[in-house]
């Protein structure tokens, strides 16, 4: 299969403008003849559904939560980047583009990343017009902060709840369209299959989570905004409902899955305390602006942090990366934490934690200043751990946070299946091997508000309105496969809980395919996953009825998909014999332990095609060409 | 359940304003305000008992000589009372209906007892008002009061009040009723400001204090009279009836 | 730690429910309330009993999915805290804990502790937005807004839509939820154009959904995990008064 990214020609800065001129339009009077299905109502899905409805298309929107406002975009704390250069500190579209593509370790598509930087400014304008209460200076203009290792202040924020405010903005736009009747909303409804008609994505099969009914929905195009797959690690900062099912079902219908091994591990999460743990809580990265990260120099030093003298502490990030210090990028910071803990120098009851110490900053700035900056985060930490960060250093540890990989899409955000569009975290396109802080919100809204609404029109104009009927045999076949799978899950009648399988999978993935990976470990993981999957289908215990609300069957379906997906993930990690961004292969590092990228062999997008259950998927490569940036080695020393 | 479409929205006519939930609040606030002002005015009249028989009876006669004023106030008061009570009871049932299945364990974090007992204090006040009208206004329960006249031939309101409160049971009813009223007002007065949208974080405590102050003044003012009678500080005029 | 739980079990919306008693054994004090329920559920499943259903997602106090009335108080009564953030160390070893769903006529039970809160969405559909189509917005800094104003709007906008205010209100009123949105947008210049219509429509929809009337208990404010002040209700009352006199 030849992967055509459909990247427009011309100078980088003009590509998007040229493309928008060259793509086809749908006549305003004809828009109402087209229907789009949007699955997922987070930042990308809600903004897309609302914008498409505003244009005049009919939209059917689906989410598994009880309301679109619950999508996990809401958990983003830090902020959203834009190249506004309001702070006059030398920011520009080009700089945001360059930072993003460099931050992604040159594994993203140049044109997509540039376009993201371009539309970033429109996002801020749109959000302000919706009434989102971004932080402001005393003069009434918008405030910015520097975030996640950026050298300019380009991050817009609403306290520590930027994701919430942006999502509620998109949600309110969506609610308006629901009220106007242009969007038909289906909450508590989960997509379980994609329906192809003549090779085009024309519908989905869903399960109504309240009644258990399997329903068919047809449309002229399907848009997936279903988020990331970080829960493949079980413990992550994501919501507990987050899953890979919709994307994975599309993959099984022929959509390519790109770069699944690119998963971001966030450095500042509260360490886990026991097996019961359901999720890891993220503490905003902004804490690293004032907190100093350290561990004891000596192994097994169990003294209280106050009792460890200065000269017996190892401020390892400051030591290894003098210029960036505690603000080193996420992947580097996370990996360093794992290294010191593996070295036996971790802190806390499990030994998997490092200190994030504010005593120096409190001494320098006073407790009041620290309280104003981080008060709510300190309170949250205290609520969870019962320790007061004003007195005792925080303990943090990396956790799975964001997934850069996702379904492969071209410049139009359309997958290799015509009509199937993928937006936000669910696609792979803009962040490469690592995402910069405050860029996830930017990408979700860029796709939903400003890119998909144009590019989907091109697809509509090309194929025309088809008024697909759900009585077609393709729908029947897809529904039947969904039904039989659910019946199979109920029929297992095993002894082991679904939850325990998810935990076991998470453990395999975290150990073998987490922060650092190697050939032997990944191969081991693949066989362990296959064995676990086998056991799952023989021993999983699914209780309750199918014709009513049943959280066990929901979870069973999702875990079953993770058990298949994880294997593909490992194949990808195995295939990529280099270290880049968040993907660290132990065999490929410098003598100093830094990531060793291999641009000659691996400057491509690895897009995997489903070839059968338990069979290694087929690799397709989209070569990445860089015409505008020089592939440098990231150095944060 | 699966869709959250606004299929059939409520109509948006101006006649619905008063039947809206906030409209009902405004209605309770407005009728309550009028009745509270009446209660204060009534108190000013009552306290004249401490100035002696002549003063109180003069005041009573003056009111009698202004039938247009008295009756219009009485009419409005009557309407306010009936509507306030009727709406209050209606709200109580509406609000109960808003939670058809109730909690097994009930707990309260900060809602005041006064706020949670408005319906009961309210009904208490209403029953009292009925008794009070029959007792002193229309002189039904104790018809002998009707024959009381002072030296100038006016209806001897003063003696009627003293005679009435010399009965410990009657005094107790009045004091208890005032407790109900004033407790009712401790929630009603701050609520009034909240409902009119005049409240904010700064004024909140102030309005609470104002509520308690007014309620206390009314309570002390009204209960002073039966207490003074029982303590024989206010006695029947020389020469009796 | 060990606890005795009395949990509301209800198979579906049609059938009647009742309180069932379960034991929660070997609970760590660091567990969140929901993790404690996870542990109980794991054991129930092992015993062949369907797990207790409850809504939850982010488990960090922001998505608003988790609910539960714990010993009579929505979200368990720890100030500024959702059920998912509530830790077991806030209970005493050996406690009996009663867990009920959010109760309101407008929140019908779906199963066990899970209720349908879509009425809140429908109120938002009636007017909880600024009608700004994608694309037409002026530059974000073209409209300076006072810092204090934005901070105050943000206080109201922090609402997570969990519905605890409704569950706590003795009248099952949704005034705090609705007022948070009305107040957020009424304070900002972007919200001015639709200010009058917004409050009228949202209040009308709120009433239509069958929520109770506000009688100023202020219990809503006490349980709100985002500590949204009842001054927002006062502001909405004011907005409504202005709207009906226009």
Spans where pLDDT lies below 50 across 5 or more residues of chain B? 1-7
Helix segment tally of chain B? 8
The helix/strand class of chain B is mainly alpha
Biggest beta sheet attributes of chain B: none
Looking at CATH, which topology of chain B would you report? 3 helical TM bundles of succinate and fumarate reductases
Per CATH, the architecture of chain B is Up-down Bundle
Please tell me the CATH architecture of the domain at 265-400 in chain A by its name.
Answer: Alpha-Beta Complex
Strand content of chain A: 15-25%
Largest interface: A-C, 86 and 78 residues
Helix/strand layout:
The complex is a heterotrimer of chains A (637), B (241) and C (246).
Chain A: H1 15-22, E1 35-39, H2 43-55, E2 58-62, E3 80-81, H3 93-103, H4 110-129, E4 155-156, H5 162-179, E5 183-186, E6 189-197, E7 200-208, E8 214-218, E9 221-224, H6 245-252, E10 257-258, E11 263-269, E12 292-296, E13 313-314, H7 316-320, H8 330-345, E14 354-357, H9 359-365, H10 367-385, E15 394-403, E16 406-407, E17 420-422, H11 440-463, H12 473-492, E18 496-497, H13 498-513, H14 519-539, E19 540-541, H15 551-575, H16 599-602, E20 604-609, E21 618-623
Parallel strand pairs in A: 1-2, 1-9, 2-5, 9-17, 18-19
Antiparallel strand pairs in A: 3-4, 6-7, 7-8, 10-16, 10-20, 11-15, 12-13, 12-14, 14-15, 20-21
Chain B: H1 21-46, H2 53-64, H3 67-97, H4 113-116, H5 118-137, H6 157-166, H7 168-195, H8 203-230
Helix pairs in contact in B: 1-3, 1-7, 1-8, 3-5, 5-7, 7-8
Chain C: E1 3-9, E2 18-24, H1 33-46, E3 69-70, E4 73-74, E5 96-100, E6 109-111, E7 114-115, H2 118-127, H3 147-157, H4 164-168, H5 175-187, H6 195-208, H7 219-223, H8 231-244
Parallel strand pairs in C: 1-5
Antiparallel strand pairs in C: 1-2, 3-4, 3-5, 6-7
């Amino acid at each position: 299969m030849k992967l055509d990214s459909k990247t427009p020609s011309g100078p980088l800065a003009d590509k998007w403008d040229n493309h928008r001129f060259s793509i086809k339009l749908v006549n305003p009077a004809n828009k109402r003849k087209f229907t789009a299905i949007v699955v997922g109502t987070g930042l990308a899905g809600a903004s897309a559904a609302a914008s498409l409805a505003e244009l005049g298309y009919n939209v059917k929107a689906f989410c598994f939560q009880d309301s679109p406002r619950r999508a996990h975009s809401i958990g983003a704390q830090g902020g959203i980047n834009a190249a506004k250069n309001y702070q006059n500190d030398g920011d520009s579209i080009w700089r945001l583009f360059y930072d993003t593509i460099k931050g992604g370790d040159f594994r993203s598509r140049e044109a997509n990343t540039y376009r993201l930087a371009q539309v970033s400014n429109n996002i801020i304008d749109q959000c302000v017009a919706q009434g989102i209460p971004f932080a402001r200076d005393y003069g009434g203009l918008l405030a910015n902060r520097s975030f996640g290792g950026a050298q300019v202040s380009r991050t817009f924020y609403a306290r520590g709840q930027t994701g919430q405010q942006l999502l509620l903005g998109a949600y309110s736009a969506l609610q308006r369209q629901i009220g106007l009747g242009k969007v038909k909303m289906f909450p508590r409804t989960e997509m379980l299959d994609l329906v192809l008609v003549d090779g085009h994505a024309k519908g989905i099969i869903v399960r109504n989570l309240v009644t258990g009914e399997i329903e068919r929905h047809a449309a002229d195009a399907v848009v997936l905004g279903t988020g990331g797959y970080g829960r493949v690690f079980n413990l992550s900062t994501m919501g507990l409902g987050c899953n890979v099912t919709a994307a994975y079902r599309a993959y099984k219908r022929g959509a390519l899955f790109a770069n699944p091994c690119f998963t971001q591990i966030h450095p500042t999460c509260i360490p886990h305390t026991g097996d019961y743990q359901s999720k890891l809580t993220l503490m905003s990265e902004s804490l690293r602006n004032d907190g100093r990260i350290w561990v004891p120099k000596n192994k097994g030093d169990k003294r209280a942090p106050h009792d460890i003298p200065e000269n017996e502490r190892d401020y390892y990030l400051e030591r290894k990366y003098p210029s960036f210090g505690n603000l080193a990028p996420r992947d580097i910071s996370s990996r360093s934490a794992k290294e010191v803990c593996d070295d036996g120098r971790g802190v806390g009851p499990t030994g998997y934690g490092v200190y994030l110490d504010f005593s120096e900053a409190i001494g320098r700035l006073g407790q009041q200043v620290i309280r104003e900056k981080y008060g709510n985060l300190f309170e949250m930490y205290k609520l969870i751990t019962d320790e007061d960060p004003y007195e005792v250093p925080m303990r943090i540890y990396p956790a799975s946070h964001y997934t850069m990989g996702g379904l492969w899409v071209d410049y139009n955000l359309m997958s290799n299946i015509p009509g199937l569009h993928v937006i936000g975290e669910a696609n792979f396109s803009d962040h490469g091997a690592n995402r910069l802080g405050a860029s996830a919100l930017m990408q979700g809204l860029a796709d939903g508000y400003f890119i998909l609404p144009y590019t989907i029109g091109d697809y509509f104009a090309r194929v025309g309105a088809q008024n697909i009927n759900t009585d077609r045999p393709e729908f029947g076949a897809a529904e039947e496969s969904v039904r039989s799978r659910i019946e199979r899950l109920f029929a297992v009648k095993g002894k082991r809980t679904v939850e325990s399988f998810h935990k076991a999978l998470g453990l395999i993935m975290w150990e073998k395919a987490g922060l650092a990976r190697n050939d032997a470990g990944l191969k081991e993981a693949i066989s362990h996953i296959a064995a676990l999957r086998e056991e799952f289908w023989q021993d999983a215990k699914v209780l309750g009825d199918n014709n009513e609300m049943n959280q066990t069957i929901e979870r069973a379906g999702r875990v079953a998909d993770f058990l298949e997906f994880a294997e593909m993930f490992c194949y990808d990690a195995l295939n990529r014999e280099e270290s880049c961004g968040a993907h660290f292969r132990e065999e490929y590092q410098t003598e100093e332990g830094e990531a060793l990228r291999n641009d000659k062999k691996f400057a491509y997008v690895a897009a995997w095609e489903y070839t059968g259950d338990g069979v290694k998927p087929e690799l397709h490569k989209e070569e990445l060409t860089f015409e505008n940036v020089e592939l440098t080695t990231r150095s944060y020393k | 359940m699966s869709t959250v479409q606004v299929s059939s929205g409520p109509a948006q006519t101006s006649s619905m304003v008063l039947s809206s939930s906030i409209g009902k609040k405004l209605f309770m606030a407005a009728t309550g305000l009028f009745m509270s002002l009446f209660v204060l005015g009534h108190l000013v009249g009552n306290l004249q008992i401490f100035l002696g028989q002549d003063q109180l009876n003069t005041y009573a006669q003056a009111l009698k000589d202004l039938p247009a004023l008295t009756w219009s106030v009485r009419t409005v008061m009557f309407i306010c009372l009936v509507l306030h009570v009727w709406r209050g009871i209606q709200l109580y049932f509406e609000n109960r209906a808003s939670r058809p299945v109730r909690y097994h364990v009930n707990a309260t974090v900060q809602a005041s007892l006064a706020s949670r007992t408005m319906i009961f204090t309210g009904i208490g006040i209403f029953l009292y008002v009925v008794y009070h009208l029959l007792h002193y206004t229309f002189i039904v329960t104790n018809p002998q009061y009707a024959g009381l006249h002072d030296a100038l031939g006016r209806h001897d309101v003063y003696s009627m009040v003293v005679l009435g409160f010399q009965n410990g049971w009657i005094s107790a009813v009045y004091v208890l009723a005032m407790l109900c009223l004033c407790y009712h007002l401790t929630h009603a007065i701050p609520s009034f400001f909240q409902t009119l949208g005049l409240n904010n974080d700064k004024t909140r405590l102030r309005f609470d204090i104002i509520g308690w102050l007014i309620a206390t003044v009314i309570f002390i003012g009204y209960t002073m009279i039966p207490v003074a009678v029982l303590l024989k500080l206010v006695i029947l005029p020389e020469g009796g009836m | 730690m060990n606890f005795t739980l009395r949990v509301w079990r209800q198979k579906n919306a049609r059938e009647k429910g009742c309180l069932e008693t379960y034991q929660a054994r070997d609970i760590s004090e660091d567990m969140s309330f929901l993790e404690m329920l996870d542990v109980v559920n794991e054991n129930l499943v092992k015993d062949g009993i369907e797990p207790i259903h409850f809504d939850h997602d982010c488990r960090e106090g922001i998505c608003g999915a988790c609910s539960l009335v714990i010993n009579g108080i929505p979200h368990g009564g720890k100030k500024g805290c959702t059920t998912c953030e509530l830790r077991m160390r806030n209970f005493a070893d050996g406690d009996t804990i009663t867990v009920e769903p959010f109760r309101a006529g407008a929140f019908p039970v779906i199963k066990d502790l899970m209720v349908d809160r879509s009425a809140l969405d429908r109120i938002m559909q009636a007017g909880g937005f600024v009608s700004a189509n994608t694309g037409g917005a002026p530059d974000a800094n073209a409209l300076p807004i006072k810092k204090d104003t934005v901070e105050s709007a943000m206080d109201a906008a922090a609402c997570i839509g969990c519905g605890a205010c409704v569950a706590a209100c003795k009248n099952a009123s949704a005034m705090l939820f609705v007022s948070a949105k009305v107040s957020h947008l009424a304070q900002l210049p972007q919200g001015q154009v639709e200010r009058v219509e917004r409050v009228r429509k949202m209040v009308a929809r709120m009433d239509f959904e069958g929520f109770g009337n506000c009688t100023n208990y202020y219990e809503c404010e006490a349980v709100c995990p985002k500590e949204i002040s009842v001054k927002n209700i006062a502001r909405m009352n004011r907005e409504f008064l202005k709207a009906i006199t226009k």
